[in-house]
Amino acid sequence: MADTTVYRSSTFAPVNIAVIKYWGKRDPKLNLPTNSSLSVTLSQSDLRTHTTASCSSLYETDTLLLNDSPQDISGARTQACLSSLRSLRRSLESSDPSLPALSTLPLKIVSRNNFPTAAGLASSAAGFAALVRSIADLYRLPTSPMDLSKIARQGSGSACRSLFGGYVAWEMGSADDGSDSLAVEVAPASHWPDMRALILVASAEKKDVSSTAGMQQTVATSTLFKERVEMVVPQRMSEMRRAVEEKDFETFASLTMRDSNGFHACCLDTEPPIFYMNDASRAAVRVVDAVNDKAGRKVAAYTFDAGPNAVVYYLEKDEEAVAGVFKGILGDKEGWEGEKGKGVQEMEAPKEVEIAAAKLKMGISRVILTGVGEGPIKTDEMLIDEKGETVV
Amino acid sequence: MADTTVYRSSTFAPVNIAVIKYWGKRDPKLNLPTNSSLSVTLSQSDLRTHTTASCSSLYETDTLLLNDSPQDISGARTQACLSSLRSLRRSLESSDPSLPALSTLPLKIVSRNNFPTAAGLASSAAGFAALVRSIADLYRLPTSPMDLSKIARQGSGSACRSLFGGYVAWEMGSADDGSDSLAVEVAPASHWPDMRALILVASAEKKDVSSTAGMQQTVATSTLFKERVEMVVPQRMSEMRRAVEEKDFETFASLTMRDSNGFHACCLDTEPPIFYMNDASRAAVRVVDAVNDKAGRKVAAYTFDAGPNAVVYYLEKDEEAVAGVFKGILGDKEGWEGEKGKGVQEMEAPKEVEIAAAKLKMGISRVILTGVGEGPIKTDEMLIDEKGETVV
């Protein structure tokens, strides 16, 4: 009798927001970057992808359901991940014939985000990290997170950093086959646990250019980009590692803001120019500058990915000075009603940012309060039942 | 009996808008730039400063009236111009004692712009060019426009380019004393007379950072700036000269847009970042991109100085495709009612720029239609009468 078992494994995986940005591929097929990058993994209580991977002879083909919508998985990126994982499983099976031949079974994967995908919140990083981690668990692969990060990287570059919690570097590597382009832990979340992040979600607006297309336009046309990848980022990477190791927030903040600005400068230097920051983003910059000026030291650091949302990093002890000022401006928006938001004391914004405050109010639709968090976490909460049906 | 003659001379001087931008000083005192720049002088029928310089023993001290407001002329920049001109006059007087000793007389200077100073339209360039040219005429200096440009440069860097009409380069020079940092004519207006410029004046908003302060912050902090001044601009300068000489609008347009974006990229890469472009500026970029896409060639080129105003260059033959589309979007704003604007046929904007068109409508308050024009022009229209009184 044929084995009709539904093999399952489930994981939660986090979002990460880079403080030294990934922008540009030296090999678009293998997702090999033009420079190393460094990120903070964010807490999964606020932002996470929950994925159940299953395989069974009951299934006909590989399928992926994301937030209840069937996804096309025939693309080269998803296929690269699936075939790498199957091939690792196949090796296990051939060395131990007692193992069930899971590598031959169709996969059914069900994935759900606890945050709106449309908000432009690095959902593909969490998505591919969860996909790779859950299938690796399903296959009981002994593969290290570093090696899994190489697989996730092929799905979405920044996904490799979501295989770890805390402070994570993606080492660009130099090998043509990508074998040394992987994520490593710079420090666990417990090393510097009081790092907070306030995300200002911009009102929905069509993205200027997808990051995949945009970064290769920059590589091809920006005259300033070479300086960034060859000279500027390598130095920032080593300074940022030291800042994290020494828990030196002022240096962390300065490097984070400079690198975000330098990345968007290269976008602007692209032909045609790419704009991700809008008037609300620039207003967030001005408020952070004013908050830092008022404090007389850097207590807050903004960073912007390929979109207008601001992520503002700060330490728990400076919550009032940072999140408090933003609550003073944006207190009527969604996102403050949870446990973390309720406790924030509203502060008055510095007078000189009156115009910026008005622009923030117009351009920001909600906030998310979060902080540094753990890497992927295995869970018994299954999105697929024992019969292979999606749990509603 | 003492000579109480009021000696007078009057000039009109033009605005210029750079297509290869000046940003950064290697010597802030002498206004020596970190890179050469190239500009188009704009027609004085639309934008000009009218200045009358006079000197007389009737006056007590040097004075300057701009748009009927007394100006402080004790600043180092104005003083550098006045003392250079006086010293040249003194030399003339000592070699020919029959000349009246104008160099010893107090100066009264009256200046008026035919456009709102507040609009952020490079008024200091026209202002210092008119100041220097009118005093040089008053003193009957045999000095060449190139030599006068060195004097005007000390007042306001970009003013040196307003000593010439047409297409003008400011050669950065290499001498420590600034003796080879001057403006030269690349081509007269008559060489390529069909160059038009549509200026989109952004709704009044406080400027982010003055260009004087901003450019030195960029020099001090931008990590990408060195590449711009050492590698990028020198190559663009030689390509731009060739484009002007060959009347190659497509190359002119491509270089103009890239250099504007590269300059603003360096502003963004400054710590703290400097933003001059706003959402309306970016909307203008998108409309120009769409106009070029639709034409299948570059018929329009945007450029932005240290503010949100867009200047869009195009050739007369493409008026409908360029100015027509902007009139279709901004037809209800001030500025189309004149002779040049009335004749422009309103065109429908490409569908894909619907959002950009809406942002332009919100952010632009008026337009100015102009084109390439002549350098300073001597005039008999005096703003000071024979008795030394200001003409109202």
Automatic annotation (TrEMBL), chains A, B:
Keywords annotated in UniProt: ATP-binding, Lipid biosynthesis, Lipid metabolism, Lyase, Nucleotide-binding, Steroid biosynthesis, Steroid metabolism, Sterol biosynthesis, Sterol metabolism
The domain of life for this entry's organism is Eukaryota
The pathway noted for it is: Isoprenoid biosynthesis; isopentenyl diphosphate biosynthesis via mevalonate pathway; isopentenyl diphosphate from (R)-mevalonate: step 3/3
**InterPro entries, per database record:** GHMP_kinase_C_sf, Mev_decarb, Mev_diP_decarb, MVD-like_N, Mvd1_C, Ribosomal_Su5_D2-typ_SF, Ribsml_uS5_D2-typ_fold_subgr
Catalytic reaction annotation: (R)-5-diphosphomevalonate + ATP = isopentenyl diphosphate + ADP + phosphate + CO2
Name listed for the protein in its UniProt record: Diphosphomevalonate decarboxylase
**Diphosphomevalonate decarboxylase-like N-terminal domain location:** 13-183
Give one GO molecular function term.
diphosphomevalonate decarboxylase activity
Q: Name one GO biological process term.
A: sterol biosynthetic process
Name the family the entry cites.
Belongs to the diphosphomevalonate decarboxylase family.
The UniProt record lists the Mvd1 C-terminal domain at 197-377
EC number(s) per entry? 4.1.1.33
The keyword 4Fe-4S appears for this protein: no
- Mind telling me which Pfam families this protein's record contains? MDD_C (PF18376), MVD-like_N (PF22700)
Q: Does the keyword Lipid biosynthesis apply?
A: yes
GO CC aspect terms: cytosol
